[in-house]
């Protein structure tokens, strides 16, 4: 297996592409095969150095509207279909937004995104968001991102015009498994929004969640499907099961399985940001291995409904691994 990984690494470094069956073979590495795992991590790191450089991209999010979501995504604490006890509130005001954005800017984040619960946004709520983004782009030096669910082409153009450079919209899992985690909208609905984002000229941040009961084949298929979308940033979330949701009693994905998946994503999509996102705290001290295994971006600070990390701690860790901030 170790020799096979070296061959795959050289193939990618020389401009080739990994095939699906080759990716599946890599994912068959067992946790006890330490030498092969180390070869995988080293290979992903070499690919990252060649195709994505040495700079780590740090983004932070603000939960700008919480709970009461009409959708039934089985992993999500914000769905109105489940009783999880999370706080619920309507769209925050701009004073709260600019205070948080400037704090994150001072602490060293590169990007700032507002995230709202719900299928999408429209009417007065959307107009308020457009105004907020216009002001944020003038009053901070942060790159402005947005995450507001399903949007139309016209809405995408409005957000782009207000200064939003990147829109976040995950596929969440493979197309085959999607109906197992959500029934209130389709995988195609997500692809339609992705097309709207790209046609409006925004960069795309699109990843998913691993550890939702999907098969290894689903996990690999998601990588290949994302790779066909022209993605700039791939957030890889590790499910942190939340009581009250249908997935609340699932066992945590093993840290090695999570790291192996992230390393594989670097083989499949060599030149993008592979971004640590929600759930990475599950890895504990092993987080540093990810930065040696293809990861070159991170969601820092708190997440939507769970506690994240202190930005200064992340920056210290990243610098210790030899990256530029």
Automatic annotation (TrEMBL):
Pfam families: BATS, Radical_SAM. [2Fe-2S] cluster binds at residues 113, 145, 205, 275. SUPFAM superfamilies: Radical SAM enzymes (SSF102114). GO terms for molecular function: 2 iron, 2 sulfur cluster binding; 4 iron, 4 sulfur cluster binding; biotin synthase activity; iron ion binding. Keywords: 2Fe-2S, 4Fe-4S, Biotin biosynthesis, Iron, Iron-sulfur, Metal-binding, S-adenosyl-L-methionine, Transferase. Pathway: Cofactor biosynthesis; biotin biosynthesis; biotin from 7,8-diaminononanoate: step 2/2. The keyword DNA repair does not apply. Its cofactor is [2Fe-2S] cluster; [4Fe-4S] cluster. Its EC number is 2.8.1.6. It catalyses: (4R,5S)-dethiobiotin + (sulfur carrier)-SH + 2 reduced [2Fe-2S]-[ferredoxin] + 2 S-adenosyl-L-methionine = (sulfur carrier)-H + biotin + 2 5'-deoxyadenosine + 2 L-methionine + 2 oxidized [2Fe-2S]-[ferredoxin]. The keyword Chloroplast does not apply. Binds 1 [2Fe-2S] cluster. The cluster is coordinated with 3 cysteines and 1 arginine. Binds 1 [4Fe-4S] cluster. The cluster is coordinated with 3 cysteines and an exchangeable S-adenosyl-L-methionine. [4Fe-4S] cluster binds at residues 69, 73, 76. Residues 51-280 form the Radical SAM core domain. CDD domains: Radical_SAM (cd01335). GO terms for biological process: biotin biosynthetic process. SMART domains: BATS (SM00876), Elp3 (SM00729). Homodimer. Belongs to the radical SAM superfamily. Biotin synthase family. Catalyzes the conversion of dethiobiotin (DTB) to biotin by the insertion of a sulfur atom into dethiobiotin via a radical-based mechanism. This is Biotin synthase.
């Amino acid at each position: 297996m170790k020799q096979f990984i070296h061959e795959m690494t050289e193939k990618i470094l020389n401009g080739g592409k990994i095939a699906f069956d080759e990716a599946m073979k890599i994912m068959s590495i067992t946790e006890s095969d330490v030498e092969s795992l180390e070869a995988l991590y080293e290979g992903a790191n070499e690919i990252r150095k060649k195709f994505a450089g040495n700079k780590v991209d740090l983004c932070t999010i603000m939960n700008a509207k919480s709970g009461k979501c009409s959708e039934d995504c089985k992993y999500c604490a914000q769905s109105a279909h489940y009783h999880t006890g999370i706080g619920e509130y309507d769209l925050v005001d701009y004073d709260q937004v600019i205070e948080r954005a400037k704090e994150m800017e001072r602490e060293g984040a590169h990007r700032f995104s507002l995230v709202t619960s719900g299928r999408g946004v429209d009417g007065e709520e959307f107009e308020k968001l457009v105004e907020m983004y216009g002001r944020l782009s003038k009053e901070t030096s942060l790159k402005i991102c947005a995450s507001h669910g399903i949007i139309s082409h016209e809405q995408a153009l409005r957000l782009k015009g207000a200064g939003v450079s990147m829109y976040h919209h995950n596929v969440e899992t493979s197309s085959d498994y999607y109906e197992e985690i959500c029934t209130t909208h389709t995988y195609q609905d997500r692809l339609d929004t992705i097309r709207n984002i790209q046609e409006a000229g925004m960069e795309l941040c699109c990843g998913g969640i691993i550890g939702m009961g999907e098969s290894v084949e689903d996990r690999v298929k998601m990588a290949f499907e994302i790779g066909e979308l022209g993605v700039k940033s791939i957030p890889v979330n590790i499910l942190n099961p939340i009581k009250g949701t249908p997935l609340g009693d699932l066992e945590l994905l093993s840290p090695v399985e999570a790291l192996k998946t992230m390393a594989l994503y670097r083989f499949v999509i060599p030149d993008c940001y592979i971004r640590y996102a929600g759930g990475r705290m599950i890895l504990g001290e092993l987080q540093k291995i990810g930065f040696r295994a293809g990861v070159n971006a991170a969601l820092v600070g708190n997440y939507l409904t769970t506690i994240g990390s202190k930005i200064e701690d992340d920056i210290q860790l990243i610098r210790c691994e030899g990256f530029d901030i």
